[in-house]
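User: Predict the full complex structure for these chains.
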Amino acid sequence: MQSDNRPDKRKGHVLLQTISLSKHFPLKGTSLIGRAKAIRAVDDAEFSIRENQVVGLVGESGCGKTTLGRLILRLLEPTSGTALFLVPEDTLAKYRILPPRSKEARAIEDEYSIYRFNRKRMKAFREKTQIVFQDPFSSLDPHMAAKDIVAEPMRAHHFRPKSEIETRVANLLDECGLGKQFLEKLPHELSGGQRQRLAIGRALAMAPSLVVLDEPTSALDVSVQAQILNLLQRLKKDFGLSFVFISHHLAVVRQMSDYVYVMYAGQIVEKGETEVVFSSPSHPYTIALMSAIPVPDPVSRREKILLKGEIPDLSKPPNGCRFHPRCPRALANCGWTADEVSTTLSELITSGHHPELAEIFRSPNQKVVDELTFEIEAGRELKGGEIEAVRSAIEKEKENPLFPALRAVKEVSGLPDGVRVSLTPPLVPRFTDLGDLHFVACNLFPPNPESGGDSR
Amino acid sequence: MIQETELSAPAKDENLLSVRDLRISFVTRSGIVQAVNDVSFDIKPGETLGLVGETGCGKTQTAMAVMRLTSETGIVEKGEIWFKGMNLTENVAKEFKLVHKGKRLVLKRDPREMRRLENQMVKIRGKHISMVFQEPMISLNPVKSVGKQVSEVLLIHDIPRLAERILSRHDVPQEKIDEIAAALLGRGSSDDRVRELVRSYGFPRLEEQIASILSRRDLSYAKKIQRIKELKGKVGRSSVLFLRRVSELGKVPSTLRVIDRLPLVRRNFYGLLEKEAMNVSAELLSMVGMPNISAVLKQYPHELSGGMRQRAMIAMAIAANPELIIADEPTSALDVTIQAQILQLLGELKRNLNTAVLFISHDLGVVAETCDKVGVIYAGNLVEIAQIEDLFADPRHPYTKGLLSAIPPFDRKVSSLGLIPGSVPSLTNPPPGCRFNTRCPFATERCKQVPPQIQVKPGHIVRCWLYAE
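Assistant: Here is the predicted structure of the two-chain assembly.
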């Protein structure tokens, strides 16, 4: 196919690179005072894909993977940040060290940023990028025959010569495993797998260089999924395509991608070559996610890491590392706030693990002073020994996985009618290079000083 | 009519549920769709059977038939469903008639027979067999609070238990309650010692209540003691008489059911039971690991997250202590980490309550982790059934083999996945004999005959000509 007209100078180019890309969806009912409320769907994402590469994007629902996939096709406008398309490596390196909003930086953005493209360049960009959606039932026009669905992008982009469109459609559908008998069929006459083949054929109509596959097999049965995955692998090889493969299904991502990004609550937490990330996952979230996958082998029962709680509300994401409230290995500086620690402390008091605490605080009354300080009133003056008892009880429970928030307690001091607790200030995790192009953003891996760590 | 006495506990080796040669058909405009054909399996008490298969293979319809929830156009054409020695499909053939109307076949039902079967099932649904559905948002009532919905199960099926709980609190002398509270206050006394103390008083329903207050994690220690102190509430004399009658009869007396409509009567008698049902609901929610119980009781399903909704569904399913839970894709709408939580919870409950589970899933991974036995269904045919280890280690049916090889492995990269060529046949006009013969690589002429059931190993049955003789 048209792969021959790709100029050689594109070697040494990055197909697409996003730089601190964010998307916040504003919420209705913004309060007059204070900041506007928004769902922070994607925050500070650094994503890159090269020619002929399959990049996997994994995470649970609501982690921002679909939003990121749409941002890089400019189906959504970002809140901040930029995405550079077909940018030469040296220009990219230069852009990274330039101060933001400087004249040179702007010049580079004008040239390469997909969000700055004018109509004409945007049209060319649309030709080169395509998307396949999850649900093959709602993403195909029910009134159009299969051959028209595939021909539509060619007509829209004024494919010349017109006379060739018909043969090209037939060839494309044939490549996707739909023979001549399917040309005239309407979507409702096709099964789920056949519809997804049709959607893939439509995506390939203009010989794109980048295709975003948004959960392409999630609506399909296992045996059909296997057919589609094998088809995608063959098409990639035959047409020299680059895929962004978005999925919540880790095993599928492992089969398909060369490089993988793991997202949690709107942020990328780990990235690296697929084999490296899957053989030595490093972020506690990635480890838990991988251990949670049910394996079709009843004999090897692996130990599961059960995460407590659920995915946070992204209109008010947790401080510091967004994973810290569920993290089994959270540290003191992972972003605990006074709210979280005081709730945990009252849980400790009521749990009965420490009867002496229950004795001191009969009905604990808490007051949050600021992000990092709170007070508990006991309703009476505490004796020196009692403050020491509180301190040692907290110290003892710091390693208890039930109360990880207590790890953040830095100091416990006496007040006239209770105690004041102050916390360790949070440290926002930055990407650390673990070698082998494997990066993780977690405080368990402090950034290596020589490389300075790659910021999110 | 079925008497409660018939539903006594089965003997040890007896099957709790037996399905024999089940055939379910749907009468549609385009003809009769045989959604399920020739499905047979057994579940023993406490056992978990998985049914796996792809979309439209009839696994859900099998479960729905057990609960008699098959939709209006569907009929159980053939076969038997036995639950605890009781035939749930007795005279089921009397219920409908197929009449020719022009060229088409039309379904006519007998309303009297339908009512009879329905009356029989009402006593079993929720009480003996309960169900957890795939999409909790659709299957929970959007206009009833979670507390009300869980209570409803208890008020329908377990009224005597509620009455006994209130009575036990009425009957226990105040001194004994004070003794318990004092024991709890005393330093160093563990919960176990308190439980032993309560046991010595001889009020089993009270024991249950105190144990559940002690296990609540959302209450402070002081509040727990306060709750126990307040346990002994005031119950009017006439209410006590009413409750005693309820606990003797095992249901609300029918005379009272009528005057129950009067607001005063309702508040005095029925209201007591409703309040008690709410207490039990809180205990059930704490059993399923629901956070923030007191708030959740008053919340509506849309205010909960997917995982929490599924926990509420499970609380409703276990409310009346059923012998069998049918879980229809209980985790398919959830994320992996939440799925792991729910599967762990189901496993724990199953062990603690010794409930049998019919687990329906399309995910062989989930089945491998939760079930003891597994049946594979293809296009309405049960093609293979075996102990879980046998099925995964030594699959026999070509379809099972194909299905297993199509799963993308998680621990290694493969160059290409195994394929089953073609697609599922139409069920209005299924291929004769083995329904897999259109896609099977080993298909021969004899596959057009119905394949025999072949036992390749004790408990491992496969329906395939390959293993004949």
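The longest helix of chain A spans residues 222-239.
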